[in-house]
Amino acid sequence: SQQGEEDPQALSIQEGENATMNCSYKTSINNLQWYRQNSGRGLVHLILIRSNEREKHSGRLRVTLDTSKKSSSLLITASRAADTASYFCATDASNTGKLIFGQGTTLQVKP
Amino acid sequence: EAQVTQNPRYLITVTGKKLTVTCSQNMNHEYMSWYRQDPGLGLRQIYYSMNVEVTDKGDVPEGYKVSRKEKRNFPLILESPSPNQTSLYFCASSLSGTSGIEQYFGPGTRLTVT
User: Fold this and answer.
1) Between chains, do B99 and A94 touch, taking CB under 8 Å as contact?
2) pLDDT(A74) > 90
């Protein structure tokens, strides 16, 4: 069953601008993870935020989690052309390591 | 280098011809999983394995088989492929199957069934 819904589906910005992607989910979760996928390649883990955390930073990435609204956002600051990729949120609601992925946001950063 | 490898990377086959996609990880991970990725549907889990000889169905297991005889390998078997199994397949692994651990993904296998 689909858990995460991402918004927008596609985003196009200029280099240097910030990019914000949103993820909404339906059930209670243990944690939420964000992954990046370059075209046709495997997914790469970016950041994990636990259900008792509200915000987390990693380099130019900032993730927020609002469990009352069942939503998360990923902010990429000062974007670069190399950030062009698809970004997926994945929710972890079980104790079996199972992740349920959203459909992803395709980000294009124009040089 | 720590990695998850998959073979083949690309495969075109015909309906009904049995095939196996191999997956191997060199990180001594306990947990391994197979996903398929289809446009508009994101990634969906096919099967997963918590450890050697322990496998279980994911969300879309129909038409697939797996085995986990060794810790490092987790092959995906399509006994009688059909065109609706045309997809991009990813193998992933993580240290364990407990919550809150990142998964490492292979490069993907693009399968076309005609």
Assistant:
1) yes
2) yes
